[in-house]
Amino acid sequence: MNMDMETQLGDVIAVPYPFQGHLNPMLQFCSSLSARGVRVTLVLTHRVAKSMPQSQPVHAVELISDGTDVGDSPRNYEEITRLPAAVSEGVAAIIEKQKKAAKVLVHDAMMPWLLEVGRAGGLRVAPLFTQPASLCAIYWHMLRGDVVELQQPITAASDCRLRLPSLPEMELRDVASIFQFPDNAKQIAELIFCQASNLPKADCFLINTFYSLEEQVVDWMAEKWAVKCVGPLVPIFHKTLHEKHDRIDLFELDSESYLKWLDIREPKSVVYVSFGSVVVMSEEQMEEIAWGLAQSNKYFIWVVRESELVKLPKDFKLKTSEKGIIVKWCPQVEVLSHEAVACFMTHCGWNSILEALCLGVPMVGMPQMSDQPTNAKLIEDVWKVGVRVKVNAEGITTRQEIKGCIKQVTGVRAEEFRRNVIKWRELAKEATSEGGSSYENIKDFVAFAKSYSD
Q1: Is 9 exposed, middle or buried (0-12, 13-18, 19+ CB in 10 A)?
Q2: Proportion of the chain above pLDDT 90, given as a percent
């Protein structure tokens, strides 16, 4: 980097929310800024920093406390409540330390209170929303009290339809409800919905999506607020598929034997199953998933976190050893990019959806909470790149339903879904390429950071 560029561009302090699903979008955004000559200071908690890759795509890394006493990530709601004070104090100290250089604070939208910390330090502030723009709009309506139907259990108003500006018509099951969280429901709902609270306050509100994917809702938001789509924030289009991707994994990776297992499978013959880093299934639901996979008669690779392994049927591994393998954690992009993978059975977390879209992999959606029901609605009814499983009266998805959905996505409707997902893959590639919408928005953000130092 030449000295002229270094002195012209304003520095950015970036603060991701210290949970698995929020770390890598911020890391990718920082990498994009660094590639354009911006010096980025990435702020991590001590626990997260242990998993930081050796090749850092940023200028510097600063460490702060997350408020826990043991150095681990917060494990429950009580520990999450310590985050605001601890992170605010740590970020304020870093801003003071770098006050002659830092110009913009980029923070995860899950920490809306950091906007005031950045402003107090004299910085411009840009929240990064790590879910789709559609969710951001929904959360805004919920904060305003526009969606009163969600203030009661879904079963009491299951026939209601939600009609919100610029969004497809939705059933109540398609939208996050506070009743998904029986413990601390109000507080957790506020934590989730308040991600949209800084829409009218932010100097720039960044969203991990791309314009053509959510054109109507982005246009609606852009008329009111300074929003910029900067996604998909995945490294897929920036490296070859054989290169390692810079990412943070808070879970220990399994050996790479699963790649050798995939290598000997026929193209489009394997179902990849992963429900992310947070979702906890009941033992009954795990059993239905297990035998649904077995009855589909497809090869499968299933990510089951160590804490969930005890819920597997006792004889499942033995009975399916010729058809499938269980891994505790793996680099998802590597698996999804493998030619053997036919479809992705997912909890519909936003990172997982973007990775599948960008790699052209159809999906079977099994949403559980938060943004996932809305994401599943988009997958099935708007983008038409997969199907969503149904639940029975007890809230369980049966093995027959799972088997049927897998057969739809890999069989009778496979060509339709693959054609649609490839269309979105190409549009995502276009958005991130030179001259594309997200490429230009990141370029504008760099100019925005630079202008504050003029």
Answers
A1: buried
A2: 66
